[in-house]
Structure prediction request, 427 residues.
Amino acid sequence: MSSLRDIKQRIKNVKSTEQIIKAMDLVASTKLQRVRAQLEGARPIYYELKRITEEVGSLQSAQSHVFFRDQEVKNTLYIIITSDRGLSGSYNANITAKALEHMNQGKNEMLFIIGAKGYEFFKKKNKNIIRTVVDVADAQVYYGAERVAHWVIDHYLSGKVQEVFLAYTRFKTVLNHEPLVERLLPLEKNTVSLPSGYGRKYEPDIHAFIDQLVPLYLHMNLFRAFSESHTSEQAARMVNMDAAGKNATEIIEDLTHLYNRRRQAMITQELSEIVGSTNILNIR
Amino acid sequence: MNTFELNILASDKPFFKGPCESLIVPSLDGKYGILPHHSNMIIAVVPGKLVYVPLGQPKQEVAVSHGLAKVENNEVLVLVDSVERVEDIDAQRAIQAIKAAREALMQKRSIREYRIAQDQLDRAMNRLRLKGKTDFLKDRDKE
Prediction:
């Protein structure tokens, strides 16, 4: 049985933890607002680029281009976006599980991990990690994404990999984010049916246009995926910290009740002892 | 007045949306002018000066980087990495960027790094040119 002092100490401990939780909650919610604004800014251009890429992919003349052509797959590159820090509930577990589920198809996998948590996870699984990026500053995400896009294109064009997948967490609402694995390269073909008499001109010509389009598309896609993941991470953290804060308040309440009851019991006991002894004294 | 609907999207934000009288985009083959009722097409955009004339307003000049422009049924969509108004360009920063990029180009590195440095140089020079501070560029040519 714990003494009064122990209970008091525990209440104190939980209270200080609660303070930390509340601070983290606050930090996560302000960060969430910022990254969400960034995400909302990046989405329109991404969707337009995606539509144009799909239209181009549905053209007969574009399908011989190296970015669209299917090849025999020997090596597959996975780009997996996780977070650097924990305390975000099941956020990292969800995305790593989703990526792992997508792998293991007998192909030779190469992993490019973003975020320390994903690195730890896949290292334990003995996966072939060829590159890791940790501790990305928020301000560098944009140019970071460009560098990654160039790196991916280099690997793809030099024939080191024949397929590239991207695993990220899509942000839907604060409470709803979905881990996803999407194929980056080769680009999808024949996804939209073009209207008959589709007579759009490509300048300078279709292949030169694709050479310009694809780096931009990959860059924007990666940048958006980073933003989506980052936003989801902050949202997950905020929700979790909120829940943790509620739990802490509950524990404090329970402990305070326990403490008060204990104290009351002690006073009652002391009183009855005093009354008992006076009774004995009075009888004499 | 004949107009077309222009929509400029940068990577971080929608930049402009509204009726326009004319538009000039920098392309691989030079400047490309677009007027209302242009035929449908898609064109690759390279770093340079983009000029557009919003309906009933003076012409606007902005610095753009890589991207593309799509014309479809009298609607023009411009998708680019970055768009900057001339007054937002930081000349000092552009000069720094030029110096850094030139430094990077001098060193023997991989083709990829060379290309990235070249891109950075292009973008920075374009900014400076729009700002009208070509003195810096000229000075170097004399050296």
Observations:
- The interface with chain B takes residues 38, 41-42, 44-45, 48-49, 52, 142, 146-147, 150-151, 154, 199-204, 208-209, 212-213, 215-216, 219-220, 223 of chain A (CB under 8 Å).
- Strands of chain A lie at 75-81, 108-114, 129-133, 163-173, 176-185, 201-203.
